[in-house]
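Hi team,

Filling in the usual template for the complex we talked about on Friday. All components are listed, including any nucleic acid strands or ligand strings, so the model treats them as one assembly.

SUBMITTER: L.P.
PURPOSE: interface mapping
COMPONENTS: two
RESIDUES: 1280
SEQUENCES:
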Amino acid sequence: MIRVGVDVGGTFTDIILENHDANKNEVTVTKVSSTPHDQSEGVVKGVLQVCQLAGVSPSDIDMLYHGTTVATNMVIERDGAEVGMLTTRGFRDILHMARHKRPHNFSLQYEVPWQSKPLVKRRNRIPITERLMPPTGEVETPLNEDEVRAAAELLKKRGINSIVVAFLFSFLNNDHEMRAKEIVSSIHPDAYIYTSSEVVNVIREYERFSSTAMNAYIGPKTARYLSNLENRLKKEGINSQVRIMQSNGGISTIENSSDRPIGLLLSGPAGGVIGARSTGEYNNISNIITIDIGGTSADISVIQDGNLRIKNPRDTEVASLPVLVPMLDIDAIGAGGGSIAYIDDGGAFRVGPKSAGAVPGPACYGNGGEHPTVTDAQVVLGRLDQEQFLGGDIVIKPELAEKAIKTHIADALGMSVTEAALGILKIINNNMALAINSNSVAKGIDPRGFTLMGFGGAGPLHAVALAEMISAKNIISPSQPGITAALGLLVSDLKYEYTRSVLIPLNQASDNDLAQINQIVEDLKAEADQQLDQDNVPKDKRQYEYIMECRYLGQGFELRAKMPNEPLTTKNVQVVIDNFYDVHKQQYGHAFKDQITEAITVRVVASADVEKLQLNKLEKGGSKNPEYAHLYNRDTVFDDNKAVSTPRYDRGKLKSGDTISGPAIVTQHNSTTIIPPDYTATILEVGDILIEKN
Amino acid sequence: MSYSGKDIDPITLSVVRGALETTQREMTLTLEKTARSSVFNLAHDYSTALFNSDPEMILQGQDIPIHLGSLIPAMKAVNKFFDGKIYEGDLILHNDPDYAGSHIIDTCMYYPVFFKGELVFWTVCKGHLTDIGGPVPAGYNPAATEIYAEGLRIPPIKIWDKGVPRDDILNMLFTNMRARRDQEGDFNALIGACKVGARNLTNLLEKYGKQVVLDCIDELLAMAENHMRSMIKKVPDGVYHGVATLEDAGHGFGDMDISAEVNIKGDTCHITIDSPPQVPYFINSYEGNSYSGVYLGLMMFAQLPPPYNEGLYRCITVDMGEKGTLCNAKSPAPHANCTTTPMETLTDAVRLAFEQAAPDRVSASWGHANGCNIAGWDTRHDEEYVTMVLASIISGAGATSEQDGWHAVGPECCFGALTSGDIEMLEYSYPIIIHRYSLMEDSGGAGKFRGGSGTCWEVEPLDKPMTMITFGEGRRIPAMGAGGAKSEFVEAKVGRLRITRDGKEQIIKENVIEQIMPGEKAANMNPGGGGFGNPFEREIDRVVQDARNGLVSEKGAKMDYGVVFSDFKNLQVDAAATQALRAKHA
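RESULT (copied from the run log):
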């Protein structure tokens, strides 16, 4: 069995290949430059390269897993399709008005993205006479089919090939949407047509319409990208199945991903969290706070009892636009190696969220970057060695880092360059720690029982400092911090989610109500089975999770409560109510026994385990500060502002059971791990490093 | 080198500041997610703030401006009332304008945070309930001539006493309110938010120690003070005047002028308000609420970066005018409408005075609120319903010297902090059908930069009559432009209520209580924002773009912008006619 994982980042495309059978178990990793104009070029190049390194033929690959930022970038850079929209008369501006709230207080000089760059321009939002009514979806005004025809003609004439059909209350009854879709497609057969009930079948028109519009906006290009990728791979003789990482941490088919590209918006960062969970599993660690630190941003997530955390619907958004699809609970903040340090107008010392990006990059890259960045601070403090930086692939110039920090920070604040550099790290670490806290402590999670796992190129540089700030139990630097996301691709499950709105108060639910809910669960499960049939997943390998999104009657927001595995009855419905109570209490610190719990949405999650990545164990060692891995010593400044002669170790030469006492620095091609004074690192079975306070 | 003169480590300062901001955000989040009424959980008509023991506001949330200015005097009034008799586990409730409340439907909770037995902070929330008792549902009674006819006045009272909830008092309060279930739910959300805030602040104190935290806070107050002083220093010394007219919204007392005098001297600013005597109609503003209006006018002009705290106002003094006037009302003046009317006109007067001082810096006025509350019987659940419809007050933003105003983010008093509810959720929650919720053509004020569009919200009751109570103004006088902007097509830019009965349309421009029957429709229309600069200098292309997007009609293009189309359908501009018409306005 040969499986390949490809994770495309802003700068590099990481590839991992696993060749595993009864006799051997080989893992090969490599990276190539990303090709932003068409990511599939880099993907194919990387796959061919990893095959060559591993000595296998590309045609022997059985499975290829891919995490992509194609859809995300399209949203951020706003270069998706020109979209047309048919919507209920009287409501053509739902997308434009959004929820009114502007992004900042007391400032008028900024853009409101949903108005300055709407997903669908007002002129292309065409009102159609029709109306459905809650709570059953009965027809109040029938669909005016002539208007639908005229709208289709008009959009066709305007050359618009991506069309949204979004009507009020279509989640209760999608007859109008489906009929309109049928008409549009008969008139405009080349168009991609997306109905809101097919894309996200839930209540709340702004979020549903906007998610559907987003799907239409990124749909055609994403579909083209995925089909390009498939063709390119075929051309190189790679006929393996291809699976795409989804925002919810599952993987899905090319076809499904092309139809619902909004499921791909966290495709990139999701791999990292899953990779982290898998690292935890190898080492019997099930409570993990993950932080994936790259050049411009840090992605934070929490794994509790080995479970990935899913964000609540309504909290899920991308580039300030709501996207109602299940996503891992990953917070991204503007903090990374490239984050710029500056003194603001009010005289405050700040770092980020602005980043020097890949170009010009940190000052020390010597590519014209003048502003001091977090990476520059690391260099000034001697924590990043010139010759070790990406194995010497990028040549860094410490004197430029020093100059930038002196000019912009140290002189202005009247402190030394070293003090300023330590300040930069302290502030950026604090920003990250606060973000970790709001994703953990604020949700009732006590970090003292959690391991902090820092990965991404810069993760292990910050991990120990962050762990100290949030009082984490200990720290893990995974064996390949720079490619944790690619590794995650090889350990993800096949996963699909199906939802439908119900709107039933549970405490007073009649047998009829419950029968209705049970029927919906059955229907959703049948949909899931249809998909799993297509994926050739045997029945006994399938797993189902039943979730009810609930709120107290009258609240505006739901939380997810687990449903029992058997059909709901007047007896076991209390289980759902109790589960909701617990979640509410954990999330907001209070909950109510005497209030009515209302079911809003039923969600069925169907998954199937895929074969898991097998990593090779390191040779057994057990030495303290092993001389065989020691490279050299160099002065390094730690947080106490003292320069200490600090040994460097070559990570590739370390053996399992080896221990290293801080201060020490462990280097490898894709990352640098810092072990400060008073900490000890232990090399684990497959090369992960556990760092603990003495 | 620090603003406060204290020895502050800049790094610790960042840490403490971040922790305070996170605390406030989590309080807001708790309110949003756990509240019960649509006014709270869909419209976010609530605010949160943190105070020190003085009590001085140390962090004002990114919430509703009209709530926040008045919280400063309100917290002080509450503190003074209890005169040191505040104990750990107390929770204080208040809404009365005699203690600097805004209007009584806005309910405030004050939670003292004790650390090692000593009062160190207050976490404070304020939220707009859906009802506060009284003769008219939802608290806006255009017929009231005294505050007693508007609902329940609550001076500062303890609803928790040393950690014990006073169920008798709470029960008395809820007994006096409609839709009790909503009110209880919203109270719980307010209490939850206060406690979440207190939990975070206690953690902060434990981690860094009281003195370090308080020093950092002093520094943040001094930093905000410095921001404001430096901004004011840049405004030339002088005395500037602004006068704004408050239209007669049906009370019969006629139009009234509110004027503001802004006196800039070095880095200080003194603002004097002059308004006519109070009237027996619900548009009087007590002093606390008027502070919000003045501060908003100031902040719209200042546009300062955070931190936002009481330090901002250290160099600002305000004389709200004689007691017993519209903007400095005394009991028993009725006041329910005060957070929008006359507040927005007061804000305009202050803004206009600043425009005299620095014409390019101001934004045009935002559309004022003219909205509605609805109430009736819900046969689906066999219970009464009552709510303010925040979606009915969504107006357009004013333009600035650099960009068009945003659509549908107003009204001015909320300055874009409001969100508005879903059509689907509203119809699910109340027995109504909404026929329209969209932008209105030609509603944005004309200008070189156009004001944002206002909105229309049209409703019909399902099966029982619905009481609709309207409030506000801005139905005759459009949002004021700035930088010489002026609209010709005024009718499209003002608010109004349109009732469709028996196939006939009736336009209403006064505040009314109307019974709307099933089969009848009521459309509440909100004004657009003011424009900035001469509209006849607006690039023709931008006028065409607006026409293409249905924001400006053929008539509007011609009247407001002097752009004449030879073929409107295909957006062909008649260049010669346009030039000739524009020349006339030059």
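MY TAKE: Chain B has three domains: 10-226, 363-538, 547-585. The radius of gyration of chain B is 24 Å.

Thanks, L.
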